[in-house]
Specification:
By secondary structure, this protein is of the alpha+beta class. The chain has two domains: 3-274, Galactose-binding lectin (Jelly Rolls), CATH 2.60.120.430; 297-608, Rossmann fold (3-Layer(aba) Sandwich), CATH 3.40.50. 15% of the residues lie in helices and 24% in strands. It has helices at residues 3-13, 357-364, 368-376, 413-426, 443-454, 499-504, 506-513, 540-544, 585-591, 600-608, and strands at 80-82, 95-97, 117-120, 127-134, 137-144, 148-153, 161-163, 170-179, 183-188, 211-215, 222-227, 232-233, 250-254, 263-274, 311-319, 325-333, 346-350, 379-383, 436-441, 461-465, 483-489, 521-524, 550-556, 563-569. Strands 15-16-18-17-19-20-21-24-23-22 form a ten-stranded mixed β-sheet, sandwiched between helices. Strands 2, 4, 5, 8, 11 and 14 form a six-stranded antiparallel β-sheet that branches.
């Protein structure tokens, strides 16, 4: 099935007109979900005032079997999108629905009027969407399989008409949710609606690549706040302008396209976030340097690395989508044993969120790759993500890798990795036909993983250490790698709750992609150190990550040189494993104790074993 065609069809369905029965329009509602990690802001407050019907009897918890509780299916695809002349919203009443009235209509407040509805991929797959009573509250409960959207048109004056609702006096969307699959939260405005029904888009099916964010879910209720200006298209519909909060037509939530996992989702307290001042929200392109916090000044051409280590800093300019050239940087170590224009292997190492090349070299890996390069003769590169909101005064070049790019991203980090190699060639450091290996931690592990999948013929091997790979991660479909290494820990404090279960499904997929037998050899890793033995604090994360242990699973082939290695720790912290740690107390409280039984740099390079 073509996801563009399918999502395009759903996009039309998401712009439904009024209900023939009651003359009220459904609206793009929300079945939202989220993660406790990432850039989701959970600090804003929201006014939950509004006219709420509380006449429905909720004396007993459980499923509602009454028609007024069931979210109706909508299959109409005719809708006129218009600019209505009602008084502009004041931004003083953000509640969309807390479901306490027990019906499927959104709260009528500040110019909003609509009804929840559900739509599914053709042919219709089973979905039940209803308002239910649980733990003393009314919530929306979604169950079923396949690709579905639940939504509400935000402003419907009657008939098959959807008004462009002015939400510019609000700053984003807030909701509480829990569930077992990720959901995409999206809004639709005229730039993602075909001109034939009142929008401004003339790109056919590509119009329906709406601005949104895909959020992983967990078993516990979590409140999430999504700023409008952080919502971006998924990318398959091509470049689009930033979202326009002054003309929102719908709000919707979708289950993952192509997923066969039965979903069980719970949503409550869907609202718009009120602004704290009189300014209106206008989203525009944010250039990388503009995203850096006030008081932080990136210094791409300055390094704290001791020059006596022979580690060199190099920079080059990379074009952005619309912000001009950006100075990018990387560190490189070339052993004295290698000559100019060497054909030696190249290992590119990528840091995690908010870190930089220097902290990955010094703090995380503690320079172990340089020692291995001296011993075995290869080039080590420490990449550096572009300037980002995660930069700090102590790490002014801190960045975040764009591991899952969209059409809205200003920086192309896949291109950055290519440019690093090109720059090494231009400086006569390497010949240009060298084997290239990628390794990364956390966000850097996700970048290495995704970059390798997107360009399997460019890279010989990849190592993803405690990575976030998406929800769900992409299924590997290539057999061109020599080496794939994945390392993760149960209950990782730096990843969404339960994410290790998602990662645990990948080895079988990789074994199939690499034509390996799905019968790994299991080996216990050395258990040499009782991590956190001297810890006397009461922090939940440090206590949960003491005395970690690991197992190694090796998948091999009888017909090729390809192999897969998986390292699974039972309770390690969200760190690069090394024998010695010098992690500050405040870091340990957040990320836990790193495993000290192995040096994972040795594990990675020993596993890669590039032939010479």
């Amino acid at each position: 099935m073509d996801p563009k065609r399918n999502i395009a069809g759903l996009g039309l369905l998401a712009l439904l007109g009024c209900s023939p029965e009651n003359g009220e329009a459904p609206g793009e509602g929300s079945s939202a979900a989220g993660s406790t990690t990432g850039t989701v802001d959970t600090t804003s407050t929201v006014d939950t005032t509004g006219t709420v019907d509380t006449t429905t009897d909720h004396s007993e918890d459980g499923e509602c079997a009454q028609p007024e509780c069931m979210v109706p299916d909508r299959n109409d695809d005719v809708l006129s999108v218009q600019t209505c002349s009602d008084a502009p919203p004041t931004g003083s009443s953000g509640l969309i629905d807390d479901f306490e009235d027990g019906d499927v209509r959104i709260v009528e407040a500040d110019g909003r009027r609509g009804e929840w509805y559900a739509i599914g991929e053709p042919p219709p797959a089973a979905v039940v969407a209803q308002v239910v009573r649980t733990a003393g509250n009314s919530v929306m409960h979604l169950t079923g399989t396949g690709f579905h959207t639940v939504g509400a048109v935000l402003a419907n004056p009657g008939g098959a008409v959807a008004c462009a609702y002015d939400a510019s006096r609000y700053t984003g969307i807030r909701l509480r949710a829990r569930g077992n699959v990720p959901l995409r939260v999206a809004v639709q405005n005229p730039d993602t609606i075909p001109a034939s029904i009142g929008g401004r888009c003339s790109s056919g099916d590509n119009c329906f690549d709406r601005h949104g964010a895909t959020l992983p879910l967990g078993p516990e209720w979590v409140e999430y706040s999504l700023p409008f200006c952080d919502l971006v298209p998924a990318g398959w519909g091509g470049a689009k302008p930033p979202v326009d909060p002054s003309a929102l037509v719908t709000l919707d939530f979708s289950t993952p396209f192509g997923s066969t996992t039965p979903f069980d989702l719970w949503i409550d307290d869907v609202a718009l976030i009120e602004a704290t001042g009189d300014e209106t929200t206008r989203c525009s392109v944010v250039c990388p340097l503009e995203s850096v916090p006030e008081g932080v000044q990136p210094t791409p051409e300055v390094t704290s690395i001791d020059p006596e280590t022979d580690v060199q800093l190099y920079t080059f300019e990379q074009p952005t989508r619309s912000c001009g050239a950006l100075v990018r940087r990387y560190l490189v170590y070339v052993p004295d044993s290698l000559t100019a224009d060497t054909d030696a292997p190249v290992l590119i190492v990528l840091h995690g969120t908010g870190a930089d090349a220097e902290s990955m070299l010094d703090f995380m890996t503690q320079g172990r790759f340089q020692a291995l390069a001296d011993r075995d003769g290869f080039v080590v590169v420490y990449g550096n993500a572009a300037p980002s909101p995660e930069a700090t005064t102590s790490i002014p070049n801190g960045g975040v890798w764009v591991s899952e790019p969209t059409a809205a991203n200003e920086v192309d980090d896949d291109a950055y990795l290519r440019l690093v190699v090109d720059d090494l060639v231009a400086r006569s450091i390497i010949r240009g036909e060298n084997q290239i290996y990628l390794a990364g931690l956390s966000n850097g592990g996700g970048m290495a993983y995704h970059a390798a999948l997107r360009a399997p013929n460019r890279y010989t091997g990849v190592a993803a250490i405690m990575p976030y790979l998406g929800a769900p991660p992409p299924n590997p479909e290539t057999s061109s790698f020599r080496r794939v290494l994945l390392a993760y820990t149960a209950g990782d404090p730096g990843l969404p709750p339960g994410y290790h279960e998602t990662l645990a499904a990948l080895p079988a997929q990789w074994a199939s992609a690499l034509n390996l037998a799905n019968t790994p050899t299991m080996t216990a890793l050395p258990d040499l150190v009782v991590e956190g033995q001297a810890y006397e604090g009461a922090g939940a994360v440090p206590l949960a990550t003491r005395d970690s242990r690991g197992m190694q699973f090796d998948y091999a082939s009888e017909t090729s040189d390809a192999s897969l290695r998986v390292l699974v720790f039972d309770r390690a912290g969200h760190f690069w494993p090394v024998p010695q740690h010098r992690d500050p107390a405040e870091v340990l409280e957040r990320w836990g104790f790193r495993n000290q039984d192995i040096d994972i740099a040795d594990e990675i390079w020993g596993f890669f074993e590039p032939p010479r």
